[in-house]
């Protein structure tokens, strides 16, 4: 049996489990609309990429709405595709 | 099956056309909807702002937000007309459940002469810093091309 250098204890029984501690879902404070550019801009990285669910804390449904709203705003020239605004 | 739905349309208009006159331009755009049998609910200027990237060589644009009721079968034709239009640089037609109350408020007065020119500096933008001249200082012990050979 190999412990791979972690002392043999592993993460079994740990409260963090395999994927880390479960975080509570975050609800969007404002509507996820493509016209709400100021709010959507908070979910972009400095390079203009859409933040992951791990960082936004949104549910899958809200994360999809966020990504769609950002893509619509980008198409209309309201948000940048890459780089800082 | 034919069905009537409420739609929202955001159009990005060319400022060169906007400067020629706002009302005729607005009528021209709404005419693209009514031509296909749409019933206009609201149509007003949303904003005039700097674009985040250049579209058709323009750095600024005026947004027109319209709400209308139309047959679902006619939307493809409306999208096609908007796409082929010279005054509409970008358009987004989406189905919406209800029209916000703000859409029915009267449009604020818009003077096309107040639109900043393309060359105007961005308000609040920091002045571009001059890049310092890079002077090559010799690093002690560094090999040069002339003296690097064996």
Walk me through what this model shows:
The complex is a heterodimer of chains A (85) and B (150). Chain A is mainly α and 85 residues long. Chain A has a single domain, classed as 30s Ribosomal Protein S18, CATH 4.10.640.10. Chain A is built from 3 helices and no strands. Chain A is elongated, with a radius of gyration of 18 Å. The relative contact order of chain A is 0.17. Mean pLDDT of chain A is 85; it is low at 1-9. Chain B is an alpha+beta fold and 150 residues long. Chain B has a domain at 4-97: Ribosomal protein S6/Translation elongation factor EF1B (Alpha-Beta Plaits), CATH 3.30.70. Chain B is 18% helix and 33% strand. Chain B has 3 helices and 4 strands; from the N terminus they run E-H-H-E-E-H-E. Chain B has helices at 15-18, 22-34, 75-84; strands at residues 4-14, 39-55, 58-71, 88-95. In chain B, strand 2 and strand 3 form a beta hairpin. Residues 124-129 of chain B have low confidence and may be disordered. The interface between A and B is medium-sized, with 12 and 13 residues.
């Amino acid at each position: 049996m190999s412990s791979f250098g972690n002392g043999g204890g592993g993460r079994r029984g740990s409260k963090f489990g395999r994927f880390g501690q479960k975080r509570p879902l975050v609800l969007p404070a404002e509507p996820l609309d493509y016209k709400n550019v100021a709010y959507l801009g908070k979910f972009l990285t400095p390079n203009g990429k859409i933040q992951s669910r791990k960082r936004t804390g949104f549910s899958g449904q809200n994360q999809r709405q966020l990504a769609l709203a950002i893509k619509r705003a980008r198409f209309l020239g309201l948000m940048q595709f890459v780089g800082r605004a | 099956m034919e069905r009537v739905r409420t739609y929202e349309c955001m159009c990005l208009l060319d400022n060169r056309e906007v400067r020629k006159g706002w009302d005729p331009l607005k009528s021209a755009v709404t005419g693209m909807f009514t031509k296909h049998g749409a019933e206009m609910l609201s149509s007003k200027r949303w904003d005039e702002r700097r674009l985040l990237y250049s579209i058709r060589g323009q750095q600024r644009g005026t947004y027109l937000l319209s709400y209308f009721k139309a047959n679902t079968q006619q939307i493809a034709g409306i999208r096609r007309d908007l796409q082929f239009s010279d005054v509409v640089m970008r358009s987004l037609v989406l189905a919406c459940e209800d029209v916000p109350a703000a859409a029915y408020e009267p449009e604020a007065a818009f003077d096309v002469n107040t639109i900043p020119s393309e060359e105007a500096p961005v308000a609040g933008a920091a002045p571009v810093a001059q890049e310092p001249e890079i002077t090559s200082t010799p690093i002690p012990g560094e090999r040069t091309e002339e003296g690097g050979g064996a």
